[in-house]
Amino acid sequence: MIDLDLMTWILLACGALIVGLSKTAVPGAGALAVAVFAAALPARESTAALLVLLIVGDLFAVWMYRRDVDWATLRRLVPAVLVGLLVGAAFLGLADDAVVRRVIGAILLALLGLTLWRRRTAAQPSSGRAAAFGYGWLGGFTTMVANAGGPVMSMYLLAKQLPVRTFLGTAAWFFFAINLTKVPFQIGLGLLDARVALIAAVLVPGVVLSAFAGRWLAVRISQRLFDRLVLVLTAVGAVNLLL
Asked: What does the record list as coiled-coil region(s) (predicted)?
């Protein structure tokens, strides 16, 4: 069932390691995992394989921050996120692999540009009801199409000025619930099948290993340097997808 070459497996293994790190040490690395998986597999198939690994990573984050959750913030986001998920599922059902690949690249570049702009200007997004709908809708769409909702929702949660552990716990539960919600859509669209599930299963140990390593590295690595590296590699991966 699995007919992948060695280079593809190496790319996927690197992506799996990044997934674990993104859940326990460096949330911004999630966009890099999206680019790596989309470069290694057909774009539509890559979203399904990555989804399985993200759920595995979510389990670690939920366990670590299970008591630190702002449930009111999560409830406010639910309606808009559901709209975004439905629109994203419809898009995946209609678009071919080439279009999905380019959209993933465009989304990554847009989120990268927004992140750089926000860092440069120290701008803070609004956290009112309109912002909740806007960020919720975009977060639902990007997470369904490209598993790239992390940067969108992180900016919204930062605007809420939550304590660190509450921020991490709210994000952990949010993405765990959203990723589980995406599973029936992925199966219904024929993206998550036995072959993709088997590929993901082979890669699960990498996520587990890097999740534990992420906890150890979190207080030992320069976050600023690592963030810059993630931004550069994400840009390279996004441009590659567009071309």
From this structure: none
Instruction: Give the other-Cβ count within 10 Å of 119's Cβ.
Output: 11
Asked if the structure places residue 1 within a domain, the reply is no
Contact assessment for residue 156 and residue 139, using Cβ atoms and an 8 Å cutoff? yes
pLDDT in tens, 140-198: 888 888 777 777 777 787 777 777 778 778 888 998 998 998 899 899 988 899 999 99
Residues 6+ apart with CB under 8 A from 110: none
Q: Domain limits at 99? A: 6-242
How many domains is the chain partitioned into structurally?
1
Q: What angle do CA 200, 204, 205 make, to 5 degrees?
A: 145
Residue 102 falls within a domain, yes or no?
Answer: yes
Amino acid at 154: S
pTM: 0.80
